[in-house]
TrEMBL record:
<keyword id="KW-0812">Transmembrane</keyword>
<feature type="transmembrane region" description="Helical">
    <location>
        <begin position="299"/>
        <end position="318"/>
    </location>
</feature>
<feature type="transmembrane region" description="Helical">
    <location>
        <begin position="147"/>
        <end position="167"/>
    </location>
</feature>
<dbReference type="InterPro" id="IPR020846">
    <property type="entry name" value="MFS_dom"/>
</dbReference>
<feature type="transmembrane region" description="Helical">
    <location>
        <begin position="358"/>
        <end position="383"/>
    </location>
</feature>
<dbReference type="Pfam" id="PF11700">
    <property type="entry name" value="ATG22"/>
</dbReference>
<dbReference type="InterPro" id="IPR024671">
    <property type="entry name" value="Atg22-like"/>
</dbReference>
<feature type="transmembrane region" description="Helical">
    <location>
        <begin position="82"/>
        <end position="100"/>
    </location>
</feature>
<feature type="transmembrane region" description="Helical">
    <location>
        <begin position="179"/>
        <end position="199"/>
    </location>
</feature>
<dbReference type="GO" id="GO:0005886">
    <property type="term" value="C:plasma membrane"/>
</dbReference>
<feature type="transmembrane region" description="Helical">
    <location>
        <begin position="53"/>
        <end position="75"/>
    </location>
</feature>
<feature type="transmembrane region" description="Helical">
    <location>
        <begin position="106"/>
        <end position="126"/>
    </location>
</feature>
<feature type="transmembrane region" description="Helical">
    <location>
        <begin position="389"/>
        <end position="408"/>
    </location>
</feature>
<protein>
    <submittedName>
        <fullName>MFS transporter</fullName>
    </submittedName>
</protein>
<feature type="transmembrane region" description="Helical">
    <location>
        <begin position="12"/>
        <end position="33"/>
    </location>
</feature>
<keyword id="KW-0813">Transport</keyword>
<feature type="domain" description="Major facilitator superfamily (MFS) profile">
    <location>
        <begin position="234"/>
        <end position="417"/>
    </location>
</feature>
Length: 417
């Protein structure tokens, strides 16, 4: 499929914030935080739990705001303004991570929470733009290519970081803490450069009618949507399934390096594993889009959920670096495809003029699930003293999501859709 200029602008936003996703959320900041927390006398299990709680709190804030923000963005020429607002919060807070003194681990977590708000809020409006850049027939291909390019961009920015890591901070120009701070600055600059086309030129093709008081009207629109939710049975049941299975996906993404450290895996090796996951995720995201076109979006989503269910159950056997590699490969095969096809599946269901409002509900459930998952992992890890058992506990979420998604056609028929 040949993409338009506007579609490429949208796709490259995923490339742009990939630096934040891989360096800040997954690879560097979790390890950096555990190091500075350890120096302050916090043990490994508690620092892992604190990291999970910080992720949960950050997503809670944007979750509560998402439906209203989405409704506000559906007015003419509003979506790009809100995208800019939250994206710049994320970029500025990512820069700020580099200037926090290492001993102030509490302030580090606080700045990280604000960066999550910017990152997650930006993604809300980025997702909402999908219906503006692609029709129902194009959505699977555009969405999976966005995720695929995001992983490829993550590989490139991650390699730059690894050069600094392997070279000893560019031949001792940077300390170990300096290398971490360099990665935060790199992620922020990467974000600015490649998000700029969509931030500057993103065009909103679908919108609701302009009003004099968009805030109050947005509340009224949200109320009408909730009051008439029975009209959207298929959307509602999909969101319930999505709530559960995407929880596990997001939690594994945010907690992977902390769990790896608890297994005793060295930082450099963790970086190589994460690089490999990014490399695998790029072609497999595209492959999931191809599978959806040849079979169906629904079948491809089911495959992704089943793969993740196996990953969680197999986490109980995590004992060595080789075990960690195997599970990392499996994550790479399905992470991007499952997320991308869930987004396009939802985009095909919703009314296009209210896409941001509905993506607000989509994001609030995704974010609330991201609160639940890290809390489950943190609680079970503290209870058992084993982060592998905490990871395995996520299997219940994938199982619930799988059952509901399997029942989705029957549930919508029975409710009269």
């Amino acid at each position: 499929m040949k993409f338009t200029k506007q579609q490429w602008q949208w796709i490259f936003y995923d490339w742009a914030n990939s630096g934040y996703g891989i360096l800040v959320v997954t690879a560097v900041l979790p390890v950096y935080f555990k190091a500075v927390a350890g120096e302050s006398g916090i043990n490994a299990a508690n620092s892992t739990a604190l990291w999970g709680y910080a992720n949960s709190f950050g997503t809670l804030v944007i979750s509560l705001m998402a439906p209203l923000l989405g409704a506000l963005a559906d007015y003419p020429n509003s979506k790009r303004r809100w995208l800019n607002f939250f994206t710049w919060i994320g970029i500025i807070m990512t820069f700020a991570l580099a200037v926090i003194p290492p001993k102030q681990w509490g302030l580090l977590l606080l700045i990280y929470v604000f960066s999550i708000i910017g990152y997650s809020g930006g993604n809300l409006f980025y997702d909402g733009f999908l219906t503006d850049v692609a029709d129902d027939q194009q959505m699977d291909a555009v969405s999976t290519t966005g995720y695929g390019m995001g992983y490829l961009g993550g590989v490139i920015v991650f390699i730059i970081f690894l050069v600094a890591q392997v070279s000893g901070g560019f031949n001792c120009l940077l300390s170990s803490y300096g290398i971490a701070k360099f990665s935060f600055i790199l992620a922020a600059i990467w974000w600015v450069i490649f998000a700029w086309p969509l931030l500057r030129y993103g065009h909103q093709n679908h919108n609701v009618q302009a009003v004099t008081d968009p805030v109050m009207d947005s509340f009224h629109r949200l109320g009408r949507t909730l009051h008439h939710i029975k009209r959207y049975r298929k959307i509602s049941w999909f969101l319930v399934a999505y709530f559960f299975y995407i929880d596990g996906v997001d939690t594994i993404f945010t907690m992977a390096t902390a769990i790896g450290k608890d297994l005793g895996i060295e930082t450099t090796m963790l970086m190589l594993v994460l690089l490999m996951v990014q490399l695998i995720a790029f072609p497999f995201s595209i492959l999931y889009g191809f599978l959806a076109q040849k079979t169906s979006n629904r079948l491809a989503i089911l495959l992704g959920i089943i793969v993740y269910l196996f990953i969680c159950l197999d986490a109980l056997h995590l004992k060595s670096l080789a075990d960690f590699w195997v599970l990392a490969v499996l994550v790479g095969t399905s992470q991007g495809g499952l997320q991308a096809l869930s987004r396009s599946y939802f985009g095909q269901l919703i009314p296009k003029n209210s896409s941001s409002e509905f993506f607000g509900f989509y994001n609030i459930l995704g974010k609330f699930s991201a609160i639940l998952g890290p809390v489950i992992v943190g609680f079970v890890t503290q209870l058992t003293g084993k982060s592998t058992v905490g990871a395995a506990s996520l299997s219940i979420l994938f199982l619930i999501g799988l059952v509901i998604f399997l029942l989705l056609p029957r549930l919508t028929r029975e409710s009269g859709n």
